Amino acid sequence: MSSPRLLIVTGMSGAGKTQAVQKLEDLGYFCVDNLPPTLIPKFAELVSQSNGKIDKVALVVDIRGGAFFNQVNEVLNELSQQGYQYEIMFLEASDESLVRRYKESRRRHPLDNHGEVLAVIREERELLREIRGRADKIIDTTNLSNSQLKEQIFAEYGGEREERNRLLITVISFGYKYGIPLDSDLVIDVRFLPNPHYIPELRCLTGNDEPVQRHVLSQDVTQEFMAKLIDFVTFLVPHYQNEGKATLMIAIGCTGGMHRSVTLANKLGDILKDKGYRCNVRHRDIMRV
Question: Domain coordinates of the chain in residue numbers?
Answer without folding.
Answer: 5-164, 168-283
